């Protein structure tokens, strides 16, 4: 494992660890423990600046799914280093800020889990070279941000905001994934670097422009570009530390990062230029116009963020025109926009992070963010006022702050673009400086609103002035640090040139540099009397005049509500889609398991029989099979008769016993065919299943005494069809040997490669271990789903073809009325309590349980060479626990083993996943196992394998799943 990989996985692992520290939150604030993680990572990335300054790049790769071209490849260059420093540096300050902002009574273990998960995902996005890995981390940022925005999940606004952000960004992620796949089809590689190198022969492919558009959709949704901006204002329902982190320095910059990273691929294309630059400049103008209407501090900052993101996006779009000219001196004349984009990306993170923290401080101390209820805070909160002044004036582009430097370069870039005679800019290029200037005027106005309405004038808060005070020092340190950085990088902007800006430019505009060449960037606060300076003076003068008369025209402006808005379109579309989905789902999701099986089996029959009909090379083999022995015929006849008795059983108990009998007869077949692993697994599964069915008696409706002929005929058709289908598949598989069998490989290599003589077990934990990992995940999800559904406190009633779920109180009232007219008969019992009064059973259980547990332990350790393994050992252990619960009761079992089996599931999955991912430490593919022999005293030479650790995870997951289901159903009365 390499350091860059560790830097991605460390926050995720730390977050998981913090999640288990809930019990310690009353002793100290968990944020102090979390603070160490981003601080270490920030120091690590700072140490990389000298190397990256010299244009060195760091490339580390670990095979993941090599057969599909997917490698866990990380790549550190100037652009990814800049973003990594922002993610970890501002992440450190946000965590420190949260220590004083978030109260210890809140679910801090969840908060920091989500925050660290997001941090790791963002680092994965900016460091990944493989597009599939990048996409995985991209969607992980959406999931983590959803959880952070919905942290106050009891508030409807938080849920709605999280839902909107998730839907919009995930939609964009799917579009981007499609674009990545198209690029793979064009270039033959998922590597971004290799795609850039192959640009000379892929840019004329028919999928090139569709891939470009789809990737931009993903970038626009994440960076809140018009019309995908609607999620960002609603996301302000998140706690302020989340807003300061996600919506200033990290999540909203992910889309800009994608645009910058793919500029060497698509830059120079007219479609890329116009989509990126025009979308950005329109977003800037729109966001600044709406921000003036808002009265909530965080809402103003949200729309200002949309506007500033549009500014940065437009700069990267304008800068891509330089690539049209290719390598040469002419192209270097138009790199100003890219330089300004990179610089403002950095500057915006600093001043916007400080402003979000300022808004949180105001809310924390006054109890409101409404500027109509604020004012006069400068005297009682001078430090916070200073933070606000520096941040807003930098955002407005005033000297001597860093925003002035990048805004001047922004104006210069928009003026330069009008001089180009490509992409029809000679006709339409004037749009950019005009919209840029108008949007800057609006930016100046809402910046004044933030400062003057909040801190000047008279106090309008509900708290008396003498009770208002400055925030705690710990809450002030992070925004003060950011504000000082804004001032320092404004007065001395050239501090950033060599170490950050030049390497980042080399990443974005790499085709413009030959080997050994570098960009020469110099940044100054004062550029002399220039056109862009006159534009700034015009912004200040006009903006000041408009602000002076703001009360006169703002009322009419606020009262004007457009008839058609993107938000209204989203809400209407969402409600319509929800109604359609509900109606359509209710037509087939009616609660009847029979109907669901008909849908599944019917679709399978149509699909497979159609495949058989269209296939021309299938050979049906009806010869060469062994003859049946007499005992096999008897066993088969018994199996068929038992199976035929199930549909005609008149009582649930009879049907359950017959179903179990079928399973046990199948077990005998496995024994006869010398498959001990399968026989053992089948036997234990049937035992546990029968117990589960008996426990479900309380919930199961009584058997319908008589069904219609149509009902029975459809059952018969489906049953016969499935039987015929499976038979034909078996015959076709054995009679059409088109592919060489892989069984010889497993027989030959199971011991050489995996150190196991039991081929079945080796398949489960090594060769096909990934399947096993996914299977226990599915089992864990199913167990938790059953747990959740039972705890929803709903009961149901069978309606023949429909199953209606009713609130438990309503159902009990209805049942009480019905019970008055019913006489319960002994043969009509519908519940089996999870306990027994049989003294013999209780006495024998005390002995049998230990025998079973010892047998389970043997199966666990013997599984690699003999029949057994973690899965079957877990089932046998669960069977012993179920026996104990039946013989005594669940209370006794819980007293003996006071375990929450949901945590057992979680730990089992975590151990299995950690074992699978642990192979990365040794530079080998995911899920690789190894083994060796060791001399251990007394035991002698013993084989130890990493598969045993994986087996332990499987064992825990199986026990947790089985016992969660059994106990939850058994205790639900």
Structure keywords:
two-stranded antiparallel ribbon, 39 helices, elongated, 6 strands, 973 residues, two-stranded antiparallel sheet, mainly alpha
Layout of strands and helices, then pairs:
Elements: H1 3-19, H2 30-47, H3 49-53, E1 58-65, E2 70-76, H4 78-101, H5 108-127, H6 131-149, H7 156-187, H8 192-197, H9 208-222, H10 231-234, H11 240-246, H12 251-266, H13 270-291, H14 297-319, H15 329-332, H16 336-366, H17 382-396, H18 402-417, H19 425-428, H20 431-455, H21 473-491, H22 497-508, H23 531-548, H24 550-559, H25 566-588, H26 593-614, H27 630-645, H28 652-672, H29 676-695, H30 709-735, H31 743-754, H32 759-767, H33 769-791, E3 794-798, E4 803-807, H34 808-819, H35 839-862, H36 870-887, H37 890-896, H38 901-917, E5 931-936, E6 940-945, H39 947-971
Helix pairs in contact: 1-2, 1-5, 2-4, 2-5, 4-5, 4-11, 4-16, 4-21, 4-22, 5-6, 6-7, 7-9, 9-12, 9-13, 11-16, 12-14, 13-14, 13-20, 14-16, 14-18, 14-20, 16-17, 16-18, 16-21, 16-22, 17-20, 17-21, 18-20, 18-21, 18-23, 20-23, 26-30, 27-28, 28-29, 29-36, 29-39, 31-32, 32-33, 33-38, 33-39, ...
């Amino acid at each position: 494992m390499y350091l860059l990989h560790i830097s991605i996985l460390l926050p995720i692992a730390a977050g998981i660890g913090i999640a288990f520290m809930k019990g310690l939150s009353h002793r100290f604030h968990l944020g102090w423990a979390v603070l160490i993680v981003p601080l270490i990572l920030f120091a690590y990335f700072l140490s990389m600046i000298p190397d990256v300054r010299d244009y060195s790049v760091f490339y580390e790769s670990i095979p993941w799914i090599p057969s599909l071209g997917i490698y866990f490849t990380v790549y550190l260059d100037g652009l990814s280093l800049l973003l990594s420093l922002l993610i970890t540096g501002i992440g450190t300050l946000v965590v420190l800020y949260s220590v004083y902002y978030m109260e210890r009574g809140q679910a801090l273990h969840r908060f920091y889990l989500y925050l660290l998960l997001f941090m790791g995902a963002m680092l994965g996005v900016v460091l990944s070279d493989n597009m599939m890995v990048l996409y995985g981390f991209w969607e992980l940022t959406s999931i983590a941000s959803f959880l952070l925005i919905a942290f106050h999940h009891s508030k409807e606004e938080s849920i709605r905001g999280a839902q909107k952000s998730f839907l919009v960004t995930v939609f964009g992620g799917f579009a981007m994934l499609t674009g990545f796949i198209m690029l793979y089809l064009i270039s033959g590689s998922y590597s971004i670097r290799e795609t850039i190198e192959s640009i000379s022969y892929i840019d004329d492919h028919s999928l090139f422009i569709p891939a470009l558009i789809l990737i931009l959709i993903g970038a626009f949704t994440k960076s809140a570009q018009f019309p995908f901006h609607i999620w960002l204002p609603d996301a302000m329902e998140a706690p302020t530390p989340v807003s300061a982190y996600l919506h200033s320095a990290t999540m909203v910059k992910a889309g800009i990062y994608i645009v910058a990273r793919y500029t060497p691929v698509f830059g120079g294309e007219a479609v890329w230029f116009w989509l990126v630059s025009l979308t950005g400049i329109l977003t800037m103008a729109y966001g600044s116009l709406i921000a003036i209407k808002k009265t909530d501090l965080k809402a103003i900052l949200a729309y200002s963020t949309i506007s500033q993101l549009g500014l940065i996006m437009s700069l990267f779009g304008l800068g891509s025109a330089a690539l049209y000219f290719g390598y040469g001196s002419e192209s270097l004349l138009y790199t100003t926009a890219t330089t300004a984009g990179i610089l403002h990306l950095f500057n915006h993170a600093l001043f916007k992070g400080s402003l979000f923290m300022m808004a949180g401080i105001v809310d924390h101390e006054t109890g409101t963010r409404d500027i109509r209820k604020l004012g006069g805070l400068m005297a009682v909160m001078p430090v916070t006022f200073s933070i606000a002044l520096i941040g807003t004036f930098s955002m407005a582009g005033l000297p001597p702050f860093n925003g002035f430097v990048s805004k001047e370069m922004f104006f210069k870039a928009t003026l330069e673009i009008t001089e180009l005679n490509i992409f029809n800019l000679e006709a339409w290029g004037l749009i950019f400086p005009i919209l840029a200037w108008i949007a800057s005027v609006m930016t100046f106005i809402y910046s004044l609103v933030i400062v003057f309405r909040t801190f000047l004038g008279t106090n309008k808060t509900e708290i008396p002035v003498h009770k208002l005070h400055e925030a705690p020092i710990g809450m002030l340190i992070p925004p003060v640090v950011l504000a000082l950085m804004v001032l320092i990088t404004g007065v001395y902007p050239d501090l950033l040139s060599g170490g950050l800006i030049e390497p980042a430019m080399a990443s974005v505009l790499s085709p413009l540099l030959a080997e050994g060449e570098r960009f020469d960037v110099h940044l100054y606060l004062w550029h002399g009397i220039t056109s862009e300076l006159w534009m700034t003076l015009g912004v200040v003068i006009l903006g000041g005049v408009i602000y002076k008369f703001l009360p006169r025209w703002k009322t009419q402006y606020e009262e004007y509500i457009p008839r058609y808005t993107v938000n209204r379109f989203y809400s209407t579309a969402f409600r319509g889609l929800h109604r359609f989905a509900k109606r359509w789902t209710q037509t087939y999701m009616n609660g009847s398991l029979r109907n669901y099986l008909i849908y599944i089996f019917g679709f399978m029959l149509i699909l497979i029989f159609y495949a058989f009909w269209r296939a021309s090379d299938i050979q049906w083999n009806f010869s060469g099979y062994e003859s049946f022995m007499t005992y096999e015929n008897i066993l088969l006849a018994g199996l068929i008769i038992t199976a035929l008795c199930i549909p005609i059983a008149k009582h649930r108990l009879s049907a359950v016993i017959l179903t179990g009998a079928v399973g046990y007869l199948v077990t005998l077949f496995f024994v006869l065919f010398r498959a001990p692993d399968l026989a053992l697994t089948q036997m234990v599964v049937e035992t546990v299943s029968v117990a589960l069915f008996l426990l479900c008696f309380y919930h199961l409706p009584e058997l319908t005494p008589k069904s219609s002929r149509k009902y029975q005929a459809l059952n018969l058709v489906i049953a016969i069809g499935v039987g015929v289908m499976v038979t034909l598949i078996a015959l076709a598989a054995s009679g059409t040997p088109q592919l060489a069998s892989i069984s010889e490989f497993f027989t030959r290599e199971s011991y050489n490669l995996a150190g196991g003589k039991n081929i079945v077990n080796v398949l489960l934990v090594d060769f096909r271990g990934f399947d096993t990992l996914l299977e226990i995940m599915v089992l864990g999800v199913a167990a938790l789903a059953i747990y959740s559904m039972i705890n929803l406190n709903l009961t149901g009633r069978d309606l023949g073809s429909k199953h209606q779920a009713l609130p438990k109180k309503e159902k009990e009232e209805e049942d009480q009325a019905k019970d008055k007219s019913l006489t319960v008969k002994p043969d009509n019992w519908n519940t089996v309590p999870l306990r027994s009064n049989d003294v013999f059973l209780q006495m024998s259980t005390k002995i049998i349980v230990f025998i079973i547990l010892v047998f389970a332990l043997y199966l666990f350790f013997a599984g690699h060479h003999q029949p057994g393994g973690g899965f079957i050992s877990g089932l046998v252990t669960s069977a012993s626990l179920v026996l104990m619960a039946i013989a005594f009761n669940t209370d006794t079992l819980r007293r003996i083993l006071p375990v929450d089996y949901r945590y057992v599931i979680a730990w089992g999955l975590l151990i299995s996943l950690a074992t699978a991912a642990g192979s990365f430490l040794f530079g080998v593919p995911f899920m690789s196992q190894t083994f060796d022999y060791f001399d251990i005293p007394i035991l002698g030479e013993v084989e130890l394998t990493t598969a045993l650790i994986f087996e332990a995870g499987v064992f825990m997951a199986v026990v947790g799943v089985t016992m969660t289901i059994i106990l939850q159903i058994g205790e639900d009365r």
